[in-house]
Design brief:
Blueprint lengths: L1 E2 L6 H5 L2 E2 L4 E3 L2 H21 L11 H18 L9 E2 L14 H10 L6 E4 L2 E7 L2 E11 L2 E4 L1 H9 L11 E3 L7 E3 L3 E4 L5 E3 L10 H17 L12 E5 L12 E6 L10 H4 L9 E6 L2 H9 L18 H13 L11 H9 L7 H11 L12 H22 L5 E2 L3 E5 L3 H16 L5 E4 L9
Parallel strand pairs: 1-5, 2-4, 10-13
Antiparallel strand pairs: 3-9, 4-8, 5-8, 6-7, 11-12, 13-14, 15-17, 15-18, 16-17
Helix pairs in contact: 2-3, 8-12, 9-11, 12-13
Amino acid sequence: MLLKGSDFDKSILNAAEMATLRHYPSSNAANAFVNRLYELTIEHQLKTQTRKRRPKQKDIPSIKATIGAFAADLLLHSQKNGAEGFMYRPSDPEALKETLATHDNFQMVIATWPEMDLVDRIKGSQKPSTWEGQRIQGINEVGYASRYRATQQFFEIAKEHRISLEDDENHFSEDIGRSPSVRLKGEMVGKGRNGRSQHLPPEKSLLNTPAYLAECQRIDKLNAALAEYEFSLTTKPRIQRHFSNAISKTYSFDQEGRLYAASGHNWLNMHKSERSQIRIDGEETVEVDVRASHLFIWYAMNGRELKHEVDPYASKRIPRAAMKQAVVMIFGSSTVPSRWPRGNKEKFLKKEGFPLQFSFNQVLDEVLKLHPILERAFTRPQWASLQYEESECILDAMERLIFELECPSLPIHDSLIVKKRQAETAKFAIARSYMQRFGFAPVVRESSPLDQSKAA
């Protein structure tokens, strides 16, 4: 059924996560379920005359692969209450290359299943992106990605084949070879209306270099180790490393480098209170994070140590959240920012619960009084270098923890989710990684799931 986005609260639709389309049926029940969905789909198309004849034998496996991947994601995302079962998926051919679905078959399924009352769909919209007045080939600015969720009729068919929401992982497996362990991105050219960064294509020859393959092996080894532990996620966690500004054949793999979730259940997108419910081997977990990580790294890269005694974002006049946001803007800009981003005051009020009553320049003056060293950051955007340095420390800590101390962890940029009883071990490992890289150790602490304002 086709639905209107205006009928739903924005927070519900924004909570939707991306369908990976990388799962395939791995049990007899799942194969029978996919075969049934295939037959129902073809019968509907023949009946409505959107298809003139049954598919050729050579085309059937591809159609079933697309149906199986989409069905698996519908089951997976139906368990995510914050989004009321909705998920999204970019459908352009380039975006589908790393999935089990083909563009034509996916278009067929998302057009047919709402008619069959198997899926609720909220249509999205796209328009071309431009850079300096020229259209960027292969990049669309998404106004709103289409949302999908399974209907009761879909669940009834699954139930007929003894597939339930609780045990879908026993019936579908992920084809991890479809998603590279390391993703390269070109130069960032801004953000779309959905807030996501957009990048030009990378230098493709880098994919065959020893440096790229070494990065892949590093992440593959870590993912293999994580697979030995049990996580209370609907899919086994897998990480993927992203490098930006990969535009030269002599690229040094030292820009961004952040770790992201490559599996279906994305722990990075969870609210902190929801992440606090994650269990590892059935044990309670905590988040261990670095206070003011980027600011600490900037100080260290300039040969100085950030003071531990006081909160680096604390001000007698200005809210901490505004101080922190100004620092983030400084690191992301090639010139001195002069104003808050459009819509910032409304977002600040919604997030913090009180209005932002200071101009950007007022906050900037206060930040520079506390940290005059930030004036050195105005020569060029520093975010990619800072993220790389941070990611190297976090990745080094993860490797040391799991390979030497049997302490599995999940990364969240400047923090790790670990078993509660191993929190002190994790804090020491992170501090040690920063100390070895910079000669200074940051403040590493347990982060409260209810206090997001102090996450740095």
